[in-house]
Design goal:
alpha/beta; seven-stranded mixed sheet; globular
């Protein structure tokens, strides 16, 4: 049986894919498979992956005929995965040698549904360690218990799918698939659902994923309309959390986080194309009106004056019926 399936989407990353694939080779094992999903790349990425399919032990090469985005590419990989455990990697990131063997060992020893790990963020030549915002390491807990508090960064704010490993039973329960078509913030509804519905998790101080920031082709660097998918992503978080049995406790966290993300984008609105900036304002104003208003009032009262003022001003903005829907 395959012990671990690693799902790796690629899209126009010819500059970085060789490093990613080299690091997978340094993690290969007879019972590991690497599912390489080409999301209809237009550069030389397909040729690089075709060569990897022949040379990388355990490689499975899949290709989309149309570009579907990261969430859809990950779902393609999940549908093909055969492993007892599953994890993710992005096509422009890389791994330390032997990292996946350590990761599998960690979840097997702990016996929980999923494990979350720290990672190294790489921006140009700078390196910084980013920790799971959960203090208890190597302790199995219900993931629902670590969603709060609302006013501090918690495990649901550490929404990197590749920073962890997940038991197959979560996929069988429908908890590992992403919302098809989301092109940014796809990890947000995913991590919230995982923490609400899985039974057990642990955080471990294992470093081995190197996350490349500042990549020119990354959506975080591009101010086009795809960035606005964060609205759909957080609408889903709020909607699903409102249906939870602990909605009264969890909604303040979901709404406050949504507000913080809106404020963040408004604070750097100059990086968006002009028409996208206008759409950001109108969609964000509509989003504020869709939120539970009492919970929103409390969230704004708890935020610093600069963010709260920015959001209250936006809240007063008229919204057309079409945008509100």
């Amino acid at each position: 049986m395959v012990k671990l399936s690693v799902i790796v989407p690629f899209y126009n990353v010819q500059q970085y894919a060789p490093d990613t694939l080299k690091s997978l080779r340094a993690n290969a094992r007879d019972d590991f498979e690497f599912i390489l999903v080409d999301d209809c790349s237009k550069d030389e990425t397909p040729e690089i992956l075709e060569r990897a399919a022949r040379e990388l032990p355990g490689a499975v090469h899949l290709r989309h005929e149309t570009n579907g985005g990261l969430a859809t590419a990950r779902n393609t990989g999940l549908d093909a995965a055969r492993g007892e455990y599953l994890t993710f990697l992005d096509g422009d990131d890389w791994l330390a040698p032997g990292y996946y063997a350590q990761l599998v060992s960690a979840i097997e020893q702990l016996g929980c549904d999923f494990v979350r790990t720290d990672h190294v963020q790489c921006t140009a030549r700078a390196r910084s360690i980013h920790r799971v915002p959960h203090g208890r390491r190597g302790v199995v807990m219900p993931p629902r218990d670590v969603i709060l508090p609302a006013d501090r960064s918690t495990s649901v704010d550490y929404a990197y799918a590749w920073a962890g490993i997940y038991h197959r039973r979560l996929a069988d329960q429908g908890l590992l698939h992403f919302t098809d078509g989301l092109r940014t913030a796809e990890d947000r509804p995913w991590i919230w659902r995982l923490h609400r519905e899985a039974e057990s998790f642990a955080a471990v101080g294992l470093l081995g994923v190197f996350y490349r920031r500042g990549v020119a082709s990354s959506l975080t660097q591009i101010g086009d309309v795809r960035q606005l998918d964060f609205i759909r992503a957080f609408d889903q978080v709020v909607r699903e959390t409102a249906e939870d049995r602990d909605a009264d406790k969890l909604l303040p966290k979901a709404v406050r986080t949504y507000c913080a993300i809106i404020s963040h984008h408004l604070g750097s609105i100059e990086r968006f194309e002009p028409q996208v900036a206008r759409k950001l304002k109108s969609l964000s104003a509509a989003a504020l009106k869709r939120m539970p208003q009492g919970v929103l009032d409390d969230a704004l009262d708890s935020m610093d004056i600069q963010r709260a003022t920015r959001l209250r001003r936006l809240r007063r903005r008229p919204v057309s019926a079409e945008v509100a829907a």
